[in-house]
Structure formats: structure tokens, C-alpha cells
Amino acid sequence: MSFEEDDESFEHTLLVVREVAVFKIPPRTTSGGHKCGEWLQSDKIWSGRLRVVSCHHRCEIRLEDPASGELFAACFVLPGQRESSVESVLDSSRYFVLKIEDGTGKHAFIGLGFNERNEAFDFNVALSDHEKYVKRENEKEAGGEASDEGQIDIHPAVNHRLKEGETIRINVKNKPSTGTGMLSAAGLSGGVSGAAKPKTLGISPPPIGGGKIRSPLPPPPNDPAAVRMTSASHGVGLKGPKENARRSTDSLSDLSQLEVFLYFLLSYICFC
């Protein structure tokens, strides 16, 4: 029986268990599954080493002699056929049923037993790792074929270099020589441009008032000057004509000395 791999495939050992037991099992009486409780210790036919080997898309469970490495039996797990090649028993997590083949199309079922639970757990993990590996390889191959068929170069390489004899011409607008370009655009220039009449800027004079210029902000509430002005404004209507006459004469004090002198000079000339 030959189990040598093909030239295109490779072997990768996933698990090695030093000692396992192989049992001769009776035919399955029910459709529910096998039970290891039905196997007697007298049905043990072999013990030795187990190796789980990944051969590209195929996984092999090899039962070998630990001393000589001679192959006793092999179970082939093909993609998608794990359940038909390796079956767990109903009454234990350490025992399995393997479907072994002799390479000529003949097969038989044997019982496989591990001494420890963790060895049986590692056996299941190794088979699952191989299935994941096969799935990744299939997706990679499918994705590579799809990318090769549907790949479109939407960014072709373009050579932007100038060829021999080619030149580039750039038109630059002349800036105005005077600094009134911005003002002319806004219609505020004082000069004459063409036949248009110059526009003059008109500034309105400040408002004429007899009193002082007042601040738009109200004075603070504790300002003594503001208190005096407020009390004075409130007492204007209560005072008599003498007080009003006195305020009219006091208004002369706000004038400058020159204005007072001219005022008295004109009054003197009128009386004369």
C-alpha cells in the first residue's frame, strides 16, 4: 500500500499521539451511532502511534508502529467528507470510529481510543484546522481567478513629459500701472477715466448743537456729576422766572473770553 504524496502536494504533520488503541467493532445495530461500551477489552487488536498529516487538500490519519514506523492502517479524510470518515461515539469523548482503506477501494470500520481526554480534544482540533486551511486555499484560488478575469485598469499610465520641440505658452494679464485700479472698480476714484465724470466723496458735517457732545453710554449710577445733572433737570420746572433768567446769564460763562469781549463791545456800541 503506497501513501506517497503527489509532486504538487506537500505533507504537514498536525498532530502526533504516542499511543492509541484500535478495536474491532461489531456492526452498527441502530442508525443512532456506535457505542464504545459494546467493545470488550478482548476486542483490542492493535496499539501504537497516531499521526494526523495534511496533504494539500486531503488529510490522512496514519496508525504507525512507534519503533519501526511501519504503517498499520490509514484513514483518508477528503474535503467535506469528515463525518463519513471519522465518527464520534455516543457514550464517550475519547473514542471514535475510523473508516480505513487499503488503496484498492476496499474499506472497513475500526474503533479508535485515546488514553486521555486532552488527546482526543487535540485530535478534533487538528481535523478542524485542516478544514479551515482547505477553505482558505479554495477562497484564495477563487478570488485569484475572479480578480484576473474581472480586473480592469482604470488608471492607465500616462506620460506627461514634453516631447522634443514642444513648448508651453502662458498668458498673463497686465496689472494696472496706477494704484487706483481697486478704487476705480468701486467707483471711488477722484481722477478722470475716459468720458465719465469724476465722483466726489461727500462727508456730512457733524450735527450742530448748543450743548456738549454726550456719550451714547449712560453714566454709572454712583457718578456725582450724573446725580447733579439729574437733580438739576428735575428742578427746572419748579423754579421761578428769576432762576430762569439767572440760567440765561450763566450761559455766557460757557463762552470763551474773546466771545465775551465782543459781546460787551457790541452792546456798548448799540447803547451809544
What would you say this structure looks like, in words?
The protein is α+β, with helices and mostly antiparallel strands and 272 residues long. The protein has a domain at 11-25 and 36-140: Roll (PH-domain like). It has 6 helices and 7 strands, in the order ββββαβββααααα. Strands 4-3-2-1-7-6-5 form a 7-stranded antiparallel β-sheet. It starts with 10 loop residues before the first strand and ends with a helix. The relative contact order is 0.08.
Q: How are the SSEs ordered, and which strands pair?
A:
Layout: E1 11-23, E2 44-55, E3 58-64, E4 71-77, H1 82-85, E5 86-88, E6 95-101, E7 107-114, H2 117-150, H3 181-186, H4 224-234, H5 241-250, H6 257-271
Antiparallel strand pairs: 1-2, 1-7, 2-3, 3-4, 5-6, 6-7
What is the fold-level CATH name, i.e. the topology of the domain at 11-25 and 36-140?
A: PH-domain like
List the strand order in the largest sheet. Answer: 4-3-2-1-7-6-5
Alpha-carbon distance between the two ends: 158 Å
Number of strands: 7
As a whole number of angstroms, the C-alpha radius of gyration is 57 Å
Q: CATH superfamily membership of the domain at 11-25 and 36-140, which one?
A: Pleckstrin-homology domain (PH domain)/Phosphotyrosine-binding domain (PTB)
**Tally of DSSP helical segments:** 6
**Low-pLDDT sequence parts:** 1-8, 190-194
Task: Name the beta content range.
Answer: 15-25%
Q: What is the CATH C-level name of the domain at 11-25 and 36-140?
A: Mainly Beta
Largest sheet: 7 strands, antiparallel
Protein name: Non-intrinsic ABC protein 4
InterPro entries: NECAP_PHear, PH-like_dom_sf
Organism: Actinidia rufa
Domain NECAP PHear: 10-173
